[in-house]
Amino acid sequence: MRIDQEFAVTVPLERAWAELTDLEAIAPCMPGAQLTGVDGEGVHSGTIKVKIGPIVAVYRGTARFAEKDEKAHRAVIDAGGRDSRGAGAASALITASMREDGDRTVVTVETELKISGKVAQFGSGMMKEVSAKLLGQFVDCLEKRLAAEPEPGPQPESEPAQAQVPAPAPSPEEPAYTPAHASADAGAAAPAYKPTHALPEAEPEPEQEPVNLLGVARWPIVKRLIPPAIVLVVVIVLIVIFVAM
Q1: Where is the composition biased (Low complexity) (predicted)?
Q2: Rounded to 5 degrees, what are φ and ψ at 216?
Q3: What is the pLDDT of residues 108-131, one digit of tens each?
Q4: Which domain holds residue 124?
């Protein structure tokens, strides 16, 4: 199945490329998604929280760059996700390309999606509907983030270093000054500095709110096919969030 999407952000092309390929920075813009790590081979791992009524489930997925052309502003991502209960799985080959359009950047996304299990009961229309809603949420968050950050400007020129004037040597008649608090034993090392208070610990990243399935899919279909519906949203969330890699 093929899903084609397009969106625009109101920033220049080069800045859009830099921002949209910074996965750690943009991952919080996708509700329910959180980046958990990347291995030595460039495979990114993430989790998706999905909520339906009082039930919250966590699913896992991976993605990696298959291609990344900075000159052409084009990236190909290989992504996939699986339901731990066996309700279905999906893999996607995502091609994202960017082009300049005045003072904004247009991002075109082509997704070749392969699905298996109960999730395959959904038609392409349903998948495109949910995908469009999730992508809209992502773009809205991204626009707010870009608007809040000033564009990087030119670095100020550093002032030339002033020449060091050597201190005058003591005259033979005057002995060199020795501080009164200097240790009698010149070879004794000074005691190591010990802080009088504990250093503050780094704050943990805030937990992401789960994706509300009832807010992105038609209730009659969700009610009839709850397990595959959850997997569908997980798959589409994975696709949308990893598009920006």
Answers
A1: 174-192
A2: -120, -5
A3: 988 887 877 665 665 666 667 767
A4: 2-149+209-243
What's the confidence (pLDDT) of residue 228? 47
CA distance linking residue 189 with residue 168, whole number of Å: 28
Number of folded domains in the chain? Answer: 1
Taking Cα atoms as reference points, which of 140, 109, 155, 133 lies closest to residue 213? 133
Per the domain annotation, does 186 fall within a domain?
no
Question: CATH number for the domain including 24?
Answer: 3.30.530.20
How far apart CA 136 and CA 152 sit, in angstroms, is 26
Pairwise CA distance, residues 201 & 203, whole Å: 6
pLDDT digit string, tens, across residues 68-116? 999 999 988 888 777 656 666 777 888 889 999 999 999 998 888 787 7
Report the distance separating Cα 71 and Cα 75, nearest Å.
11
pTM above 0.70, yes or no: no
The answer to whether position 166 is within a domain reads no
Whole-number Å distance between alpha carbons of 121 and 133: 20
Residue 144 lies in a domain: yes
**Cα–Cα distance between 7 and 36 in angstroms, integer?**
26
